[in-house]
Amino acid sequence: MQYEVFNQGQCTILQIKESRFDAKLAPAFRAVIEEKSNEIDSHLVLDLSEVRFMDSSGLGAVMAAYKLLKGKKISVVKPQRAVQELLKLTRMDKLIASYESVEDAVATVA
């Protein structure tokens, strides 16, 4: 999985640099979250701006991160239309907020 991790304020930003978040990518995503879980600040921001497709494995990996990071906020940034619709369809948008930019997500943690 190609990704970049950096901190901005009290947020840890995980930018996924892949076009597909599916069964092939999900195990690597879970491994990154498990490896970095102790380093993640109070808010994990998933930058999904490059992800054009997400399947149930991708959703499952995001939910696994949500459970693993219990007590920490998780949000997504700039999901493509298909990904946003999937989050709404599965009602994950009720658990994980969506923002237009990393700056907008970071601004929620003051």
UniProtKB/TrEMBL annotation:
It comes from the Bacteria. Pfam families: STAS. GO terms for molecular function: anti-sigma factor antagonist activity. Residues 26-109 form the STAS domain. Gene3D superfamilies: STAS domain. PANTHER family: ANTI-SIGMA FACTOR ANTAGONIST TM_1081-RELATED, ANTI-SIGMA FACTOR ANTAGONIST TM_1081-RELATED-RELATED. Belongs to the anti-sigma-factor antagonist family. This is Anti-sigma factor antagonist. It comes from Photobacterium jeanii. The lineage of its organism: Bacteria, Pseudomonadati, Pseudomonadota, Gammaproteobacteria, Vibrionales.
